[in-house]
Amino acid sequence: MDDDIARLTLAGYSSVSLRLLPWTSEAGTPCYLSTDDNTGYLSRLADEVEDSQTEAAHEVLGAAKAVLGDKRSGYREMRFALARATESLGDILLIAKSRGERLPAPDVEPTTSGGEEEDNGTGEHFKA
Fold first, then answer.
1. Which residues are 127's β-sheet partners?
2. What is the pLDDT of residues 21-48, one digit of tens each?
3. Spatial separation of the C-alpha atoms in residues 102 and 61, rounded to whole Å
4. Which of the listed residues 42, 51, 76, 126 has the most CB atoms within 10 Å of its CB?
């Protein structure tokens, strides 16, 4: 499944939202949940996993700062801290992408902050 998929249209059905989940398949590919109920079991599980990953990232950040701040930290400590920080950053980026995909599309409104506005032919306005 393409990583950029945010909506799927099925024959005879309206658009179904796909939620990017905070884990991958055994093959390392993204996992998506197709549901219009964000209170279902898998949606709640995904929320709990995201919360756990975010909390872990805070802990990893604190530990990494401590390792970096200790002039006695050696190669192994630095490498371990960097590996954990990299894992946490990957988790947080996946959460951010998932949450970003679930945000409603912004309405395009004409700007009113000075300067002339022009219509680009689509009904959208831009500052000239």
1. 117
2. 999 999 999 999 998 888 999 999 999 9
3. 27
4. 42
